[in-house]
Amino acid sequence: MAGGVLVASTNGRQYEGKVTMFVLVTCLVAAMGGLLFGYDLGITGGVTSMEPFLIKFFPGVYKQMKDESGHESQYCKFDNELLTLFTSSLYLAALIASFFASITTRMLGRKASMFTGGLFFLVGALLNGFAVNIEMLIIGRLLLGFGVGYCNQSVPVYLSEMAPAKIRGALNMGFQMMITIGILGANIINYFTSNLESGWRISLGVGAVPAILLCIGSFFLGDTPNSMIERGQKEGAKKMLQNIRGIDNVDEEFQDLIDASEEAKRVEHPWKNITQLRYRPQLTFCSFIPFFQQLTGINVIMFYAPVLFKTLGFGNDASLMSSVITGGVNVVATLVSIFTVDKFGRKILFS
Span 31-223+297-350: which CATH code? Predict the structure, then answer.
């Protein structure tokens, strides 16, 4: 066991339990989905700024970056349609996959959805690492996008349902922590491989390592009690809840989970109901908070950081090192959030 006795709160009730090593290890493995997303987010900008990569797949872009004397133009342009397709196809595929991921997560469980995402990541990373033409690059990116869609949909739900209420915020932010570590790791790898002739293959292919870990780990992870109850596996759900809480007497909490599941199944027309006036505040917060968070542009900065720094006049190494520094600050800020989210609450950190 890890940690001492704590009180887990669900629906206003208090339950005895412990922060078990089982929960911590399980959440760590599951959070690998965030590591994969962060790695793919951070690796792209560095790779697309590598000259060997551009010469092989996007020679037109490379020519635009050079003037007649062979020096870099002050306003080097990356306005190539194929290059744009390469970078944006991940998000397009993730958007489409998220709809299928929600069905998989609900019907087959969070564990199956995470394994599917890891498998997509693995195949996509291998295709990109061994790419010999633009078609392999695009198909690999699409598969990586499917992996993002599945993992981003299932992992936060899995972490929330596995974590005890006392540290639910910290463990759920483990997903974000892994994203920032993935971004930082990608920036560091790009920095050390940028001067290698086939360094871009290493950068793109290394993403297969955490993908393998997630796929293997998924075989040993247990599904959440909530998911198992939804699929009628009540005996297994109770055993899993006992493992999570570290105690045998979980009857009261287990019954509450069953009651909540049955009540949810009785809801008719959930999408219609949520548009009712009494649910308007919840609908507004859930829609506009993530919407405006994305409009801040931070993902674009993380995605294109090396390219942005390069177009501002930084040298190749300097632009990659600047990206490493940005990624490092991102990790530190996330660590602060993890250690304060359950103490001060979400609202204070958000503001």
Answer: 1.20.1250.20
